[in-house]
Amino acid sequence: MGKTSDIARARRLYRTVLTIRRAEEALAVLLAEGLIPGFIHLSIGQEAVAAGVMDALTPVDTVTSTHRGHGHAIAKGMGLDAFFAELLGRDSGACRGRGGSMHVADISRGMLGANGIVAAGMPIALGSALAHQILGRDAVAVAIFGDGAMAEGLLHECLNLARLWNLPVLFVCENNGWGEFLPTDRQIVFSLDKLAAAHGIAHVAVDGNDVAAVASKAAEVVAGVRKGGGPAILECHTTRVGGHYEGDPQRGRDPADRAANAARDPLIRARAALTEPDAAKIEAEVTAEIAAAVAFARAAPPPKWEDAAASVYTI
Ligand SMILES: Cc1ncc(C[n+]2csc(CCOP(=O)(O)OP(=O)(O)O)c2C)c(N)n1
Ligand SMILES: [Mg+2]
Hints:
Layout: H1 3-32, H2 47-55, E1 62-64, H3 70-75, H4 80-87, H5 121-135, E2 141-146, H6 153-164, E3 169-175, E4 178-179, E5 182-183, H7 192-198, E6 202-207, H8 211-229, E7 232-237, H9 255-263, H10 266-271, H11 276-299
Parallel strand pairs: 1-2, 2-3, 3-7, 6-7
Antiparallel strand pairs: 4-5
Helix pairs in contact: 1-2, 1-11, 2-8, 4-11
The structure holds thiamine diphosphate and magnesium ion.
């Protein structure tokens, strides 16, 4: 890659990482104000996975996500107005305020949805990959999952079927070492590379806090899947800076672990690839974009009562 495109890529990746960070910081404030119904799970510390992986995708590629899906939706190109309005349950939200944090989706951008059920996005990605294959689309499906999903039967079924049918699907593991309130090494007995080998699926690992590295590896692996090479797994080692959910008191967590995570901050690393004036310009733009979207969502009307049953149907 030439120097100009290297710089353009570094700017693009920093912008995405920063947008996700600032968006989630804004969500924490909105939640504290009581404006967001239910729980939210923030991905602070993990933004480089979303930014790097989505950088390798085209608009027709499809993505399914987890309960920690804000960053994936934003990086896949979901508009910030529609994102914030959705989180606040407003009618102008991407799903007209019916989905919220754990069902945030934008089909027009190939973002097939976050998912509150661990591993449940994976078979949806498989279905999407099967559709790409049958219809001969030049597209891949990406299933994002957490390391906690390795304990789910669904994950094993999906790996098997993906290999058996040679589906154009990339499995992306956000390995943050945690599943809810317990380290995953106390929940899971095997590692993903061994699991991949058992299914004959290629496995690539990357530092999930280095956005440039994630983008390069993702581009390589996605190219192979796109060419018809069948499924692959990209395991991103990353850090969950906060608790499982926003407000989690994290009683069982060693404070040293939290400090170590902060030292690996993907945002600082993404910024270090730019000159200071370059980074400051992007920061000013992103800050203004987030402020505008939050103001839009705050002012947006809720759904109308008379529309409550509009999308409910029987067949
Ligand atoms: C099938 C199912 N079992 C249990 C839960 C409760 N639960 C919510 S998140 C979570 C852990 C998820 O860990 P991981 O997949 O590593 O994602 P992370 O929170 O680390 O991003 C569990 C067990 C659930 N939502 N769905
Ligand atoms: Mg985890």
